[in-house]
Amino acid sequence: MFSKRNHIFGKTLFVRLLVMYHVVILPIILLGLYLYNWSYSNANQEISRYAQVQLTSYLENLNREIEWMEIQQFDILQERELRKIALTWDMMDSTEKKSSINYVLHRLTSIRNTSAYIKDIYIHIRSVDVTISAVNAVQTFDQLLYDATEMTLEGNKDRLIEKGGFLHLRPSMMGIDQEGEPLYTVQVELDAEKLKESLDTLNMYPESGTFLLSEDWRVMLSVGEESNRIPNHYLNTDKKLIDSTNRVDVDGSLYHFDKAYSEELGLFVVTYLPEEIVKSPLNKFSNWVWVFIVTSIVTIMIYSYSTYKLVHRPLLLLVDGFKRMESGGLDKPIKHEKTDEFGFIYDRYNKMLVKLKQLIDQDYKQKLMMQKAELKQLQSQINPHFLYNSFFILNSLAKTEDTERIEVFTKMLGEYFRFITRNGENEVSLEEEIKHARMYTEIQNLRFSRRIKVQFDELPEQMERVKVPRLIVQPIIENAYEHSLEKMSDEGYLRIHYEVLNDEFSIIVEDNGDTVNDDKIYKLAKHIMNIDEHQEQTGMINIHRRMVLTYGTGSGLFLSKSELGGLKVVIRIKQKGENEDVQTIDRG
């Protein structure tokens, strides 16, 4: 328990750190962040809000202008004098021709003078090979301008069209002649300079700029100091598709972009200005920024030193103690004179060392006793079926008076039972264990040589001296005979082979039996892996448990479907550490 001194509120480590953090650091950080974020956010929102209002209003006004021009364009298209020129020009005398032309010119001039955005109005009359212009009056049919007009109409539904620096409304056509060409076409050319002047009114700062975009993201008009560079950077970023307000990096400088869209016109209008302009309202807080920086640095130094002295150094002492514990140093307690929380932890750490030594000694002895008990249990499980079959084979050999085979068989049988019943040692070399397993298969081969084929590979030399618990291979082979191969009507096949990897050795036993499916293998593997559950400690479970106790996690039995068709059992022996191999027996 804590002493009375440790219960004093002001002396606890947690309270001291908490008070220091709130009194010294937190108010300064929160104040600085609040002032900066509020100022920046407010300036950013105000600029964006004002820009959105301006851009939306501009598009509405432009749409009204375009609608008025389209109405006038349609009215011209319906003019009776214009149809008269197109259809009856050859039948008209010179007076009528002059009168009709003058009337049309007067109408074009009147309409042009009603809008500052109209640069010229063209009427292309192919039947009389004439182009009438509000500016240039009557002239020879302008084939280039007419062809450009027809090209813009193909697959283009935009109301405002830009072609080679020529900005005009979508042309209107009247009727079709015998050759499939329109009788005449009315085309309104817009004054790009006047439109640029109107766009320029949206620029709030000298460094800002504005540009018009079509629905397919083409620049139609652009004004501003950087009008040739910045729009291209904007079009090359995916941010243009996201919000109406965003920031774009242009050659290392951030620019603030606002855009508005007119569905009627199919146009975007975008305005931009440097991010520094957005931040300009924050200049009045520059002194506060410096105060905040200096204060923060001093605070961080004080807090860092205090944290190092009160927390870091005591923790390092505790970490060093745990590192000594990991390396086996359980006889070096932490010496200290602290009375705070770390003093309490150090006292408990020292008591834990003593308790841990006791538990390790107790646990080690229990594991040894458990391994010996499980081995004796496995030894006691001599399969009566195998014993009866062995005597039956011996009886058959005696009846045939095959004394040589009787001698060989009895010698193998004696070696077999001597190995499984001896109590002198719990671990043997893998060479001895494989020799015993091979002897078992040779005994079984006397009975099943015609029905079961066995492939027993030679043990790799680097695996021979590995120390393993006794009886880990033969019971697996016995299980294959008893539960699979003996029951087969076709020829059985048993294979025992090995794999050597960098950090593990594997003994693989597999057969071609047909008595197990994937579901049974999964359930059996799950049953084997639950080594901490209280269950019957026999057969494969016994072997797996002893392997895990001996070599640790990652070792033991691993079951899967064999490529031969039956069960595949891998007995895996993992190395104990990066520089520590499994135990071996010295032959010297």
Automatic annotation (TrEMBL):
Matching Gene3D superfamilies: 6.10.340.10, Histidine kinase-like ATPase, C-terminal domain
GO molecular function: ATP binding; phosphorelay sensor kinase activity
Source domain of life: Bacteria
Main location: membrane
Pfam families the record matches: HAMP (PF00672), His_kinase (PF06580)
Recorded topology in the membrane: Multi-pass membrane protein
GO cellular component: plasma membrane
TM region positions: 12-36, 288-306
Localization of this protein: Cell membrane
Domain HAMP stretches: 309-361
Keywords annotated in UniProt: ATP-binding, Cell membrane, Membrane, Nucleotide-binding, Phosphoprotein, Transferase, Transmembrane, Transmembrane helix
The keyword Transcription regulation appears for this protein: no
Record SMART domains: HAMP
Listed InterPro entries: Bact_2-comp_sensor_kinase, HAMP_dom, HATPase_C_sf, Sig_transdc_His_kin_internal
SUPFAM superfamilies associated with the record: ATPase domain of HSP90 chaperone/DNA topoisomerase II/histidine kinase, HAMP domain-like
Protein name: ATP-binding region, ATPase-like
